[in-house]
Fold each of these.
Amino acid sequence: MPHSEPIVVMGVAGSGKSAVGAALAERLGLAFLDADSLHPAANVAKMAAGTPLDDEDRAPWLDAVAARLGGEPIVVACSALRRAYRDRLRAGAPGVRFVLLDGPPELLAERIGARRAHFMPAALLASQLATLERPSPEERAVVVDVSPPVAEVAEAAARRLAEPLAASQ
C-alpha cells in the first residue's frame, strides 16, 4: 500500500538525497522528484560557481517544490536546510513528512568529491552544514544515518516513517 503523505528527503550535499529518495519512493510505491530539477538556471549557475544561494534565490524554487508536494503523495529530494524553508514547503503541503539524512562531514565530503557532472562543488559543504537547522520534534521528521548502503538507508527511512509520530521523534 502506498504511503499517503508527501515526503521530503532532506539534508546537505553528499547525504544521498537523490539516491535514497528514489529508493524510498520505489519502496513506498510513490513517484520521485529531485527538487534540483526545479532550480532556475540562474541558481544552478550561482551554485556551480561556488556561491551559496540566498533566501531570495531560494524563494521561487521552494514555492515550486511546495506546489509539487501539494498534489498526489510523492517523495521529493530537497535540501530544506532551514526551518523557514521547511515551513514554506509545509505551507504548500501541510501533511508533509521530512527524512533528514545525517552523516559525518568526512563521509559527505568524500561522496561529493566522488560525484561527476553535478553542479554542487565540495566547497559549499561547509556553508550547508553551517546553515542546517535540525528539525524540531513538531516538524514530524525522522533522522536516518547515511553511513550504510542506500538500500539500507531507504529501508530505515521507510521503517521510521511507519512508526507512530510520538515514537519517531
Amino acid sequence: MTAVDDGTATDRPLADIDAKVAASQAKPPTGLGRIVAAAMAGAVAEWYEFFLYGTASALVFGQVFFRSSGNAIDGVIAAFALYAVGFLARPFGGMLFGHFGDRLGRKALLQVSLVIVGVSTFLIGCLPTYGVIGSWAPILLVALRLVQGFAFGGEWGGAVLLVSEHSPDHRRGFWASWPQAGVPLGNILATLVMLALSAQLSDAQFLAWGWRVGFWLSAVVVIIGYWVRSSVDDAPIFREAQAKHRAEQQRSPGLIAVLRHHRRAVLIGIGARFAENILYYLVVTFSITYLKLVVHVDTAPILTLMLLAHLLHLAMIPAAGLLSDLIGRRPVYLTGAVLTAGWGFVAFPMMDTGNYAAIMVAITLGLAIESLTYAPYSALLTEMFPTRVRYTALSFCYQVAPILAGSLAPLIAVGLLDRLHSSVPISLYLVAAAVISVVAVGLARETVGTSLRAVDAAAAER
C-alpha cells in the first residue's frame, strides 16, 4: 500500500481493512446516554459563558469596561475585540490538552478544563468597572478571557471523542452530534438568565450589577457538569491503544506528528469550519447588535426571539447528525455550506422590517443552515484521524479555525456596518466563508460508516 500523508485517501477502501480488523458495532453500548450527558456538560458550560459574554458585549461591556467616546458602536467594537481575544489562547489549550488527552485519557483532561472554565467565568462577574479601576478593567478582562480560551481549547475535542469513540459506527453522526447540541442548550440557559435579569431589573440596575449574576451562576453549571463526568470512563478503543503504546514504550506523538502525517486532513478540518463558524457568530452575536443599533428592537424581545431560536436549534443538530448517517457527511455538509452563502441576502432584509415573526424566521433559518455544517463535523473529524493522535488533531483543527473565522466575525461585521452602512458587504463576507468550506469539504473523503479500528489499522499500515 502506498504511503499517504493523512487519512483522506488510501489505495483501497477502509471498509476492506475494517473487515479484517473488527465488525461494526450493532447497537449503542450500555451507558451511552450517560456518556453523552457527560460530554454535553462541558459544552453547556462553555456556550453558556460564550453567549453570556457575547450578549453582555452587545448590551453592557462597551459601557462598563471602556472609556466612553460618545459613540455607542465604539464600545461595542472594543468589547467584540476582546471577544476575539479569547480565541487566541484556544489552539494552545487544544495542543496541551490534546497532547495529554491522547496520553493520559479524555476524561481526566475534561475534568481539569471544566474547573478552569468555571473559575475564570465566575471571576469575570467579579471584575471592577472602568469607572473604578480605569484601564485595569479591560486588562483584567483580557487576562480572564485568555484563561477561559485556554481551557476551552481542550474541551471540545475531549467531549466529542468521549462520545464518538463509544458510538456504533453506523450512528456515529447522530451520537457525536449531541455534544454539539450542548451549544444551543448553553445558549438557552444564558438567554433565560439574561432575559430574567433584564425583565426584573431596571436598565440602571442591570448595567450596574445585574449582568454579573449570570456569570456567577456559571458555577452551578460547572459543578453539575463535573459531577456527571465523574461517572464515565474512556472508550475501550482508547484504552486498548493506550495499553499498546505503553507496552511498546511509545510516547504520544503530539502535534508535530499530526502536522507531518496528516497535513491534508488538518487543512480540511480547518477550512470546513469557516462557513459554520462565521455564520453562527453572525446569527447569535452580531444579530443582537444589528437588531439593537440598526433596527432599534428592545433588549427583551431580542432575547426572547433568540431563546425560541435556540430551542429549535437544539432539535436541529441531532437531526442533521442523523441525516449525515443516512446520506453521508459530505452531502449534508456541502448543502449547508452552499446555503450559508445566501443567508445574509435573505436574513438582513427580514430583520430590517422590524417584524418579530420575520426576525424569528431569519434567525431560525440561519441556525438551521448552521446545523447542517456543525452536526456532521465531529463525526467527520473523528473518522479522519487515528486514535493515538485524535484528541490533538481534533482540538487543533477546531480551535485554529475560529481564530481566522468566528472570532473576528462580529468585529468585522460591526466594522463593515459602521463604515458602509449596509448589510450587503456582510453578506458577501459570508459568501467568501462558504467558498472556503465548499472547497475544503469537496477535498475530503466520505467517511460515513467507517470503523475507528479500521482507521487505526490503516494508519499503522502506512
